[in-house]
Amino acid sequence: MGEYKKALSSYERSLEIRKIALPPNHPDFAQSYNNIGSVYYNMGEYSKALSSHERSLEIQKITVPPNHPDFAHSYNNIGSVYYNMGEYSKALSSYERSLEIQKIALPPNHPDFAQSYNNIGSVYYNMGEYSKALSLYERSLEIKKIALPPNHPDLAAPYNNIGSVYNKMGEYSKALSSHERSLEINKIALPPNHPDLAGSYLNTGSVYG
């Protein structure tokens, strides 16, 4: 927490200097508000994070061309705040707007799509819409398989997410298969006592339990 406070202090000082040195709504302000929002997000102060990210987005709307990739990042950040606040319909709206912009601004199968599909899938998972969540998690995994080498640690999470959905749907053999694949990757990619490895064993055990 102490490091977050130091980061926040530095970002706020940077913003103060920019307010003196730059004209109103200069593009650099968007970066400042985004940085401040990200620190508040990591501190769990979601209302402050939301306010900062929304301010960043407002400035981008004035200074950046429509459908610029920066918009996708801003909507994603806002979606993540709403997600952690449990406001899933608002999170879904923001994440879907981010994805729409990515589809215009980025090449097919860009790694950012994997994160977007994962985020939207997680919203549906928490809303109990498991078939939609499964489809999106699988799409996220497909993109990561294109972008990453086999057994890359970033492949463990989508397999874990897919396993969790199958578990909720009562498809336990498929859940077990996915969790075991996640565990297999983590065993290769991580040190023996890494917390993610413990999580993989726990998830695999939960299918049996």
From TrEMBL:
<dbReference type="InterPro" id="IPR011990">
    <property type="entry name" value="TPR-like_helical_dom_sf"/>
</dbReference>
<dbReference type="Pfam" id="PF13424">
    <property type="entry name" value="TPR_12"/>
</dbReference>
<dbReference type="InterPro" id="IPR019734">
    <property type="entry name" value="TPR_rpt"/>
</dbReference>
<keyword id="KW-0802">TPR repeat</keyword>
<keyword id="KW-0677">Repeat</keyword>
<comment type="function">
    <text>Kinesin is a microtubule-associated force-producing protein that play a role in organelle transport.</text>
</comment>
<feature type="repeat" description="TPR">
    <location>
        <begin position="30"/>
        <end position="63"/>
    </location>
</feature>
<dbReference type="GO" id="GO:0005874">
    <property type="term" value="C:microtubule"/>
</dbReference>
<feature type="repeat" description="TPR">
    <location>
        <begin position="156"/>
        <end position="189"/>
    </location>
</feature>
<feature type="repeat" description="TPR">
    <location>
        <begin position="72"/>
        <end position="105"/>
    </location>
</feature>
<feature type="repeat" description="TPR">
    <location>
        <begin position="114"/>
        <end position="147"/>
    </location>
</feature>
<protein>
    <recommendedName>
        <fullName>Kinesin light chain</fullName>
    </recommendedName>
</protein>
<comment type="subunit">
    <text>Oligomeric complex composed of two heavy chains and two light chains.</text>
</comment>
<keyword id="KW-0505">Motor protein</keyword>
<keyword id="KW-0493">Microtubule</keyword>
<keyword id="KW-0963">Cytoplasm</keyword>
<keyword id="KW-0206">Cytoskeleton</keyword>
<dbReference type="GO" id="GO:0005871">
    <property type="term" value="C:kinesin complex"/>
</dbReference>
<comment type="similarity">
    <text>Belongs to the kinesin light chain family.</text>
</comment>
